[in-house]
Structure formats: structure tokens, C-alpha cells
Amino acid sequence: MRSLSARSLIVLLPLMVALGTAGCDKPKPSAEQASAAGNQATPAATPLVETSRVDNSHKGEAMPGMPFAAPGGSPATLTSFRGHPVLVNLWATWCGPCVKELPALDALAARETGKLAVVAVSQDMGGDAQVQPFWKSRGMKALTPYTDAKNQLMSAMAAADLPTTILYDSKGKEVWRVSGGMDWTSEDAARLIAQAS
Q1: What are phi and psi of 186, to 5 degrees?
Q2: ∠ at Cα 193 (188, 197), nearest 5°?
């Protein structure tokens, strides 16, 4: 019986590793998991492993206009960012790949100020009360921590997992979407973002 269990683990291990390095699924963690994830520090020296998939199947679709929340709870919409390209990142505090890519998104937002709006929208069900302490502990400077506690934006965008990042052109039409974590300061990311100009 022991050898069967060991064989089963050997067969299942590659599958478990593959699933663990992909994006986070839509289901939310328990309160204990969310708390533990929020308290884990991401070492600055840890490189971001790119596990992303570019998807062009939604190209040309209009950005959704429903509201989500700005810090403090006031309503915000993606359409208010029109006029230049908009990069929307759907993430959560409990999602490992999401948390790993936040510093790169923050650096991108700082570098592209006035040329590209980088909009990070948390899908945490705890909303502002959960995201604000997390955000402050991470030292984000250029990104604003928007929230969508009811996951309406994620549903409207037909995003299946986290992180999902969607690029809209200056007219509010989707260019592409990326599922999974990515180094947004890389040359590959720069080439992708240039498609919106």
C-alpha cells in the first residue's frame, strides 16, 4: 500500500507544481489563509517567474463601465481613464503571483505616468479594510489600491483567474489580456504594451 501512495505522489507531483505556478483560481481562500498571505513578506531579491499567457480572443471588446471603489469607498470607473491606454490588473492579497507582480506594476505606473494608466483593482471580499493595510505594508508608491469586493469587474471582463491584466487602447477597446504573473518592467511587457499606441 505504501508503494502505491509513493507512486501516486510521483505521478501527481508535476501536475501539482504546474497548477501552483499558474495563476490563482477564482475561488477565495478561507479567512485564515487570507490572513496568512497578507502577513507574508515578499523578498525583494526574489525574481518574478513569468507564468503568463497572452490572450487576444477578446480584442476589440469595450471596457466595462460599472463602478468599483477608490480608496475610501468613493465610486470609480475604468471609463474615467479613457484618453490614453489603460492597463487593468485584477489581483488579490491572497494570490501569490498577484503579490509578486505588484512591485513591477508599481514601477511601470511610475515610469509611464501621463502615458499609460495602470489600474490595480483588488478582488478581495474584505474591500478597502483588507487592502489598505496590505498596501501600506508593501510600500506601493505609484499605484492606487482600488477594490471590487463583489467581483463585478472580474465577471464583466470574463476573467477566469487571478492575476488577470487587460490592456485597453485610448478609445477603451481591449487589445489583449494576460492571465498569470508577469514582470511588467521586462522587454516582453514593453512590446506588449506598445501594441496599444
Answers
A1: -80, 165
A2: 140
Q: Residue 163: is the preceding peptide bond cis (ω within 30°)?
A: yes
User: Tens digit of pLDDT for each residue in 107-163?
Assistant: 999 999 999 999 999 999 999 999 999 999 999 999 999 999 999 999 999 999 999
How many Å apart are CA 81 and CA 97, to the nearest integer?
A: 26
Residue 65: its H or E element: none
Q: Would the pTM count as exceeding 0.85?
A: no
DSSP 93-106: TT-HHHHHHHHHHH
Contact between residue 100 and residue 180 where contact means Cβ atoms under 8 Å apart: no
Backbone angles phi, psi at 134, to 5 degrees: -60, -45
48-194 belongs to which homologous superfamily? Glutaredoxin (3.40.30.10)
Identity at 132, one-letter amino acid code: Q
Radius of gyration over alpha carbons of the chain, in Å? 17
- Parallel, antiparallel or unpaired: strands 161-162 and 117-122: unpaired
Going from N- to C-terminal start, the domains of the chain cover 48-194
- The one-letter amino acid at 3: S
Which regions of the chain does DSSP assign to beta strands (E)?
24-25, 53-55, 68-69, 75-76, 86-91, 117-122, 145-147, 161-162, 164-168, 174-179
User: 3-state SS string over 127-142?
Assistant: HHHHHHHHHHHHCCCC
Return d(Cα 184, Cα 138) in angstroms, integer.
Answer: 17
